[in-house]
Amino acid sequence: MHLINPPELEAASHMPARRSAGDRRVAVAGQAAAFADAATRMLLVSDGLTTPLLQAVVGQVLRPRVTALLTVSAQSLSSSARSALALTPGQQCLVRHSQLVAPGGTPVSENTAIAPEGRDTAVASALRDRHRPLGFALQDAGVHPIRSVLSAGLATWPDGGPCAYKTYLLLTDGVPAVHIRELFNPRMVCARLLDPDEYGASPGFSPRERN
Fold it and tell me: What would the pLDDT profile of 131-186 be if each residue is shown by its tens digit?
């Protein structure tokens, strides 16, 4: 792995996190608890590889379909992605848009992975791999990141209907390397919500995604 730490990232890595890992896990568990289906809840809270879990949920072997590889400025990204990756204004990022598709071609997930250019060359190479799911490409490149789930809940599938989603961060040597957002096809991963009284939601709580 070839990791490059700019000075501002070195400084950020020694600052206390705004929310501890334990607090994040509790928050994500609370967000996932809104879903009626146990398999959906498991998928959302897991910090393991998504592809094997998703294959177990849908009972099919999935393959990746990379739909776009772009280089964009940090300003065009969501505020949550910029913050999680500790991006500086004007910093360039590699963005990979992909799907995991069933044998018949139906997308089971829609995925967006963002990595700062120049921070980790092995990670950037894995993002450019069009033939393997990102997690497998990272493993084959010798990259074994720590996964930290940042949020989970309800978002919008491309057809306009509600779907389950999660975002998470991949860290290499403690440095944020990739921000990933995954949407799950509601026809294959149940997005039905429980009544708030059924899972003890706090007043004002909503599982709807925030930027």
Answer: 999 999 999 989 999 999 999 999 999 999 999 999 999 999 999 999 999 999 99
Can you spell out the DSSP letters for 35-62?
Answer: BS-HHHHHHHH--S-HHHHHHHHHTS--
Do the Cβ atoms of 72 and 98 come closer than 8 Å?
Answer: no
CATH 3.40.1410.10, domain 38-193, yes or no: yes
**Domain range summary for the chain, segments of one domain joined by +:** 38-193
Where helices occur in 46-178 by DSSP H, the ranges are 50-58, 79-84, 121-127, 134-140
Query: Taking a C-beta distance cutoff of 8 angstroms, is the pair 95, 74 a contact?
Result: no
The token pair that represents 91 in the structure block: 């910093």
User: Between vectors from CA 187 to CA 184 and to CA 190, what angle results, nearest 5°?
Assistant: 65
